[in-house]
Amino acid sequence: MTFSVPSVMLNNGVPIPQLGFGVFLVPPDETAAAVATALDAGYRLIDTAQGYRNEQGVGEAIARSDVPREEIFITTKLTNSQHGYDRALAAFDASLEKLGIDVLDLFLIHWPLPMFDAYVETWRALEQLLVDGRVRSIGVSNFEVEHLERLADETDIIPALNQVELHPEFPQGELRAYHESHGILTESWGPLGQNRGLLDDARVVEIAEEKGRTPAQVVLRWHIQVGNVVIPKSVTPNRIRENIDVFDFELDDADMETFAEMNVGRRLGPHPNELDLV
Ligand code: NAD
């Protein structure tokens, strides 16, 4: 069975599917098969990054698929070592080459790396790529309010989307509120809590049992109802299909309240001001 995902609108009028397939830590030689399974299941948003070293596998799956290129939304991200205007432009070219495409759908700055003070200049390169028609939308990842404010003050284009760590234990309330008031979509990474206990939480299990769904499905449904774009990852075909099958049931107010109570402010990844990996 193929599932169909509704789209939401980016601030420049480009639609993005609300649920997609993430390929962080998918080994390069398994990526084409995993993406092919995802496309067969109905995923139309694929989230990769230069740093994942699997853009080529994504490109292979898209080239081989019967799904037309224009129906697939591809995101990739500028890797940390390529900040700076000229470096970002060159790295973008290399991504298109690996993905085997002429125009990218969404290009993100992967991390702000504020200690190097280069993200404003890097953002200028992304603005140029947008103006030149080489990418349909541009955004950021792991940006805090202070970084978004600097882009708003010093550059011309508001990011279409900010991809950040977000799950019921870390729902990013303040950042989401900033996004909402500035026309920026919120995209959740680590949406299932990266397989580190969230799906075993008794409250999640209970809601799943009541709904006759799996813990992963009710967590993904929570993201959808909160209004996030969400990009779960799996290499297991049954889970890939399970994770997209979340559009024929709803969580009620009591379920949403239970999820709200799970907020413990627990990050799984680094704070964006601390990550300085180059
Ligand atoms: P995730 O929360 O999607 O967890 C993935 C893990 O959950 C899988 O490896 C598997 O162990 C488990 N899982 C998946 N489906 C399941 C199911 N149905 N039942 C039980 N367990 C299941 O974490 P993630 O991969 O870190 O995040 C998703 C995507 O977000 C990534 O693939 C990547 O595209 C993106 N991401 C971006 C950043 C960033 O800095 N921008 C960082 C991390 C991830």
Brief rundown of the structure:
The protein is of the alpha/beta class and 278 residues long. The chain is built from ten helices and ten strands.
Please write out the topology.
Layout: E1 7-9, E2 15-17, E3 21-22, H1 28-41, E4 45-47, H2 55-64, E5 73-78, H3 85-99, E6 106-109, H4 119-131, E7 138-141, H5 145-154, E8 161-165, H6 173-182, E9 185-189, H7 202-211, H8 215-226, E10 229-230, H9 237-244, H10 253-261
Parallel strand pairs: 3-4, 4-5, 5-6, 6-7, 7-8, 8-9, 9-10
Antiparallel strand pairs: 1-2
Helix pairs in contact: 1-2, 1-9, 2-3, 3-4, 7-8
Residues 22-24, 47, 110, 141-142, 163, 189-195, 199, 214, 216, 231-234, 239, 242-243 line the site of nicotinamide-adenine-dinucleotide.
Structure characterization notes:
- This protein has 278 residues and is an alpha/beta fold.
- The protein is built from 10 helices and 10 strands.
- An 8-stranded parallel sheet has the order 3-4-5-6-7-8-9-10.
- Helix 1 (28-41) packs across helix 2 (55-64) and helix 3 (85-99) crosses helix 4 (119-131).
- The chain is globular.
- The model has no long low-confidence stretch (mean pLDDT 97).
- Bound molecules: nicotinamide-adenine-dinucleotide.
- Nicotinamide-adenine-dinucleotide is lined by residues 22-24, 47, 110, 141-142, 163, 189-195, 199, 214, 216, 231-234, 239, 242-243.
